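Researcher: Go.
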Amino acid sequence: MEKKAAPKKKTTTGKLHAPTIAPKIIRKSISQTRRDIADWRYAIRIATMVSEPKQVLLQEIYGDITNDALLSSQINNRQEQTISSPFELVDDGGKVNDNMTALLNAISPLPDIIKMTMESELYGFSVVELSENDAGKQATLIQRGNIDPVFGRFYPDTSLNTCIPYRQVSEYGRFLLEFNAGHLGILNKAVPHILFKKFAQSCWSELCEIFGIPPRYMKTNTQDAGMLDRAENMMREMGAAAWFIIDTAEDFQFAQGVNTNGDVYDNLIRLCNNETSLLISGAIIGQDTKNGNFSKEQAAINILAWLIESDKRMVENYMNNIIIPAFCRIGWLPATTCRFRFSAIGDTNKLWSITKEIMPYKEVDNKWIAEKFGIPVTDKAPTGMPAGMAAAGGFFA
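Model: Structure:
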C-alpha cells in the first residue's frame, strides 16, 4: 500500500503556523529552597559570565520575588494603565486610520504582547513567539531562563551547553520577536529588598510564636521509663506548644534577649516596602498612613503618571519598529506605513472649565462637545424665537 506524504507545515502568509522554539524547551523542576543574598550574587555572576552566560538562576530568583504582594501590586498598577489605554494608527499626515486601528485592535494577543514588551524592562528582555492555530492567533513568551540575550542563544536544556542561535533562524523578526532592555532588569535592584523583607517577616513570625505561646518544660526522673511516659503524655495533652522534658538533676534557663515587641522587624519591612515602591512607582503611594496627606499623595501620583508616559513611549517605539512590521510580514495586518500611538487623554475637568469660559465669546462645535464630554447638545434658540424656527435655520432660511 502506497504511503501518503506527510502534510507540510503551513507557514505561508495568512495560514496556520505552529510554534517552533517554545515546544523545544525541556521542563525542569524549580528549587523551592529559601533564597539568600549569596544565591543572588552567584546568579548574577553566572548571568554576566564572559563566554557562556546563563540566566536560569537569576530568572528563578526573579520569579520568586515577584510573588511578593507589594511588588506585584506596584507592577500591575503601572502596567495596567498602559495596557488599558486606547490607541490608534495614524498615516503620514497625522490622520487617524480607523480601518487599520480596528484591524490591529482585533488581534487578540496584542494586550499580552504589550505586557511582554513592558516586562522586558523588569526582567531585562522578552522573546516572544507568534503562532496561529485553529483556536486563533497566539503569542507565547519563551522562558527567560532558557535565553541568553547577550549572544542570542536559546538553550532547550539549561543544564547543557547545546544552544540554538535564535537570531539566525528564519522566523526571527517575523514570528520570533525580541525586546531587549540591554541590562539585567529593574527586578535585579529589588531582589535584596524582597529577600530582607522575607527574612524580617520570618523572624517576626517566630517572635510572635515565642511571645504568644512560650515553650514549656517539665522536670522528671528520665531514668524511670514509667515516669518519662507519664510526663510525655501530660505535655502532649496540654496543647500544641513546644515542650521538652529534662531530668531533675538538670537545670534549664531562658537566655535573656533584647526586650522588643517587633519594632526592629516592622521598621525593616517598612523600609523594604518603601524602597520597592520607589523603584517601581517612583514614589510611595497609599502606604504611609501615619504621615501621609493629600498633597504628598497627589505629587506621588503625578510622578507615577510620568513613568507611565515613559512606558507608553517605549511601547510605541517597539510597536512601530518591531511588532507592526512583523504583523505585516506574516499577514496579520496588511502592508502599511501607519504609525502606532496612544490616544491623547487630557484632563477633562480642566478642559471643561476652559470650554465654559470661552463659550460666551466663541462658537464651540456641538459634535466636538459630544465626543469630548459625552454630552449630546443642540443650539439654543434665541430669546423670543420659537425653537422650531431656530432649528430650521432662522426666519430668512
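Model: Residues 22-189 form one domain.
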